[in-house]
Amino acid sequence: MEPMEAAVGGKAVDAYRKALATAASAAAYAVMARSMARELLPEELRAAARWAASALGARVGWGQRDRRTLVVRSQPSSTGAGADDNLLFEAARTYLASRLDPRAMRRLGVTLARARDDAGRASWRRLLFLEPGGSTFDDFEGVRFTWTCVEPTSSGGASGGGSKKKAKKGGEPSAGGDRDFVLELSFDAQHTDVAMDRYVPFVMHAAEEVEQRERALKICMNEGRMWYRMSLHHPATFETLAMDPALKRSIVADLDLFKSRRDHYRRVGKAWKRGYLLYGPPGTGKSSLVAAMANHLRYNLFDLDLSHVQFNTSLQWLLVGISDKSILVIEDIDCCCDAVSRKDDKAPPVRTCGRKEDDGGDDDIDDGPAPESGAPPPRTAPPPNKSNSNQVTLSGLLNFIDGLWSTIGEERIIVFTTNYKDRLDPALLRPGRMDMHIYMGFCGREAFKTLAHNYFLIDDHPLFPEIQELLSEVEVTPAEVSEMLLRSNNADVALRGLVELLEDKKEKKKQAVPTEEKQSEEEEAGKEEAASREQPSK
Ligand SMILES: Nc1ncnc2c1ncn2[C@@H]1O[C@H](COP(=O)(O)OP(=O)(O)OP(=O)(O)O)[C@@H](O)[C@H]1O
Questions:
Q1: ipTM of the complex
Q2: Whose Cα sits closest to atom 16 in ligand 1?
Q3: What is the CATH number assigned to the segment(s) 218-342+390-439?
Q4: Among 173, 180, 181, 332, which lies 20 to 30 A Cα-Cα from 505?
Q5: CB-defined site of ligand 1, < 6 Å
Q6: Helices and strands (H and E) in the chain: how many
Q7: pLDDT tens readout for residues 257-315
Q8: Which atom of ligand 1 is nearest to the CA of 242?
Q9: By alpha-carbon position, which residue is closest to atom 17 of ligand 1?
């Protein structure tokens, strides 16, 4: 290389280095400024800045090629054919309400609605929502999505929603008050597929879960062909349920697996349903377990009293009227069905065995499919039927469980309870009908500890060893133990009462043994005597 060329080349390299250094420090400043902004500026200020930048960008045309915005109106459009709610708008609002953090946002809409907690106590439900101009972001699969609430304009502009009063399902006022705001979802254009194919479905699904978690549960009871709906405020949960901890864990795991397996059931071509048979002595917690299941899954309960169902057709109407995400319970199935033998259509009709108790509530009525007449049928016996062929039979019930029941609706659980499993027709017990058989037994050591914790918030007490020793010797139901623990607010007094009950049972057990032995001795003696009496006549 010539000296002149070398000098020129050297200058060029120097200039290049300087440019590089300048660029590097500019980048460093940018990074520093961004991280300082992240640390020093509150999120809502940054979100507002982003929103302002994007609004300005949209005005002057910056980055228009790189950003996309989905406008989510509360209704499809003011000129649209249908006036149905836009499900994405409702879902987005519900989803955002569950994510908005009042500590991180300077301005936020809030409404309080009357509600009841699971124990039935009056309370308030808080709903947060973005106010016009408010913005928040959500990171999903590494992509940043920005939600912005836009004020409706009279010209229809971004909104076009007008000012119709919106009410959420169930009469709850819309979180945004009377005005129909518009939500805008913006993201980088390159992520349009992620937004449309995955993020939007994700928001829909997440909102559904939030709604399900927060909805008030119902218990529905049948009368004729209709379901009467009442609020369910059973406080039983898996935490309060006294039973073997391993069994409890396995039930919770089974329920969670069932709930998460929508795609699995579709793939294998099976109806998305699961059957549980709960059996065990009275007072061991079968009904409490059903309530705990409903509270855990947030499913409504449909308590089917077969003694009020006269015909297979009525049963059909009732089963078709059960909503998705529900638990159908038939209590004391051994009593309701003469289930000792199926014998197909010759099987005995369902026997009336009287309802255990009537809740007597009258919150509201769920018509389900329309009955033949508009009015609820009276709770009287049907006109005498010449033939039993149309009456509810066990095989009729089984047909609905495997037939219509399986195909209409999704995400359903059916629970049978019985005190006498051995009296049931094997047809009821075969896998596919009752997938899990759960024995609810007498109160064991761990179950007792749960009850003591429930009633007195104690995990230990000087009387525990004595009680646990006695529990291993006698049979006592959790209901009996609960009854004793309820008797006093003072743990010492209540536990002493329980010790007395258990000792009493132990004593009776001791006395019962000789009596039984004596009885069998007497029987033996009786037989011998009879035999000796017969001999002379031979
Ligand atoms: N395993 C349990 N855990 C907690 N509480 C229980 C349990 N078993 C019974 N109890 C208490 O006893 C009461 C009655 O229990 P529950 O009705 O659930 O028993 P059940 O087995 O369904 O009885 P039945 O067979 O007579 O219908 C409950 O309200 C609850 O207070």
A1: 0.98
A2: 285
A3: 3.40.50.300
A4: 332
A5: 241-243, 282-288, 419, 440, 478-479, 482
A6: 17, 14
A7: 999 998 888 888 888 889 999 999 999 999 999 999 999 999 999 999 988 888 888 88
A8: 3
A9: 287
